[in-house]
Amino acid sequence: MLYLTLMLQLGCITSEIEKSPGDFPDNLSDDYDNDGLSEFDGDCDDLNQNIQGPSLWYVDSDGDGFGNPLTEVEACQSDLLDLEEVYVAEGTDCDDENPDIHPDMEESCDGIDNNCSGEVDDYQGSNAPRWYYDDDNDGFGDAAVFTNACSAPAGHVADSTDCDDSNADTYPNAPEFCDGIDTNCNGIDDDNSAQDATLWYQDGDDDGHGSTVSQAACSQPEGYVVETGDCNDNNASVYPGADEYCNSVDDDCDGQTDELGAVDAPTWYADLDGDGYGNAVVTELACVASAGYVAEGTDCDDGDAAIYPNAAEYCNNGKDDDCDGQQDESDAVDPLAWYADTDGDGYGNPQQISYACLVPSGFVSDNTD
């Protein structure tokens, strides 16, 4: 119907009236082949062999050189010049209201089928986003294997920072482990962020025990040890478990100084009776004596405060008062007077006296001879 309307408008439909060749203009068909191109009536310019018969034309509303395929007409080009519409030979425009949409238009990533290919955003030029192949499906791609496209092709991602695209456990910021692999792709194998890294402590005095200054690492850093607890990392003789000395220093780092058991501590003796002399059997090693302990351990009876070395000896009390191993010896402070009985009659000479706790041989207690 459109073609018929156009033909009527152009005046191309004529009656079957017999006309001679001289009745037609030079460029119209006259049933003769004047330019050698067609033996049939219908040549658009029978005097120009470069112009053949009617062809298909399409309305180009947006002036982009491509017409709307729904406006197709068959006509000679010369017959279209006086019409208001612009006709073109290409009828492949998919949006004849937008001059930026036509088959020769470069596709871009804008959600529009710019080049009338039938696909939206099928642009794959260098200006399209780059997508990287993610072989191990960890969300990070191989920088060396990529494609340009408006949207990610299957198996491709935007991130290209995978350092091993064959290992799904290896990718940027992945958990690092002490396994000889750069799991987190930071360029360092077994870095200090490894989740199973050992905590090492700085050992400034090289005594095998570190201070509270620490760092995590898969292998031992120089100047660091695995043992901590050194309370003075500037003194190699001070560390946990060291020998304690009586030096006002916490040598073994237990929070105490000069405590019991110091290797150079003197022996102290329990003085239960408070006479200043202790029991040789009940002792302690300490830098400073505990309450109830004394330096002397020579008390022979720690249950009697009157008995101790060099105490006053008394007669006939059944005790070794001065702890010299004897009882009632001659140096007792309360000796008895004894008189010489030279004639053996049981009476002694008052002029010959001997003082002792026990009667000496040849003496008697009666001085009346």
Strand content: 15-25%
Q: What is the mean pLDDT?
A: 86
Count of separate DSSP helical elements = 1
What would you report as the Rg, rounded to the nearest angstrom?
A: 64 Å
Low-pLDDT stretches are 1-32
Our measurement of the CA-to-CA distance between the termini, rounded to an integer number of angstroms, reads 188 Å
Q: What structural category do the secondary elements indicate?
A: mainly beta
Sheet with the most strands, sense and barrel status: 3 strands, antiparallel
What is the 3D shape? Answer: rod-shaped
Q: What pattern of helices and strands is seen along the backbone?
A: HEEEEEEEEEEEEEEE
Number of strands: 15
Helicity range: under 10%
**Largest sheet strand order:** 2-1-3
Write the layout of secondary structure elements.
Blueprint: H1 2-10, E1 55-59, E2 73-75, E3 87-88, E4 130-133, E5 146-148, E6 156-157, E7 198-202, E8 214-217, E9 224-225, E10 267-270, E11 279-285, E12 293-294, E13 336-340, E14 349-356, E15 363-364
Antiparallel strand pairs: 1-2, 1-3, 4-5, 4-6, 7-8, 7-9, 10-11, 10-12, 13-14, 13-15
Give a written overview of the molecule:
With 369 residues, this protein is mainly beta. The chain is built from one helix and 15 strands; from the N terminus they run αβββββββββββββββ. The strands form five sheets. A three-stranded antiparallel beta sheet has the order 2-1-3. The chain has a three-stranded antiparallel beta sheet with strand order 5-4-6, with no helix packed on it. Strands 8-7-9 form a three-stranded antiparallel beta sheet, with no helix packed on it. The longest helix has 9 residues, at 2-10. It is rod-shaped and about 200 Å long.
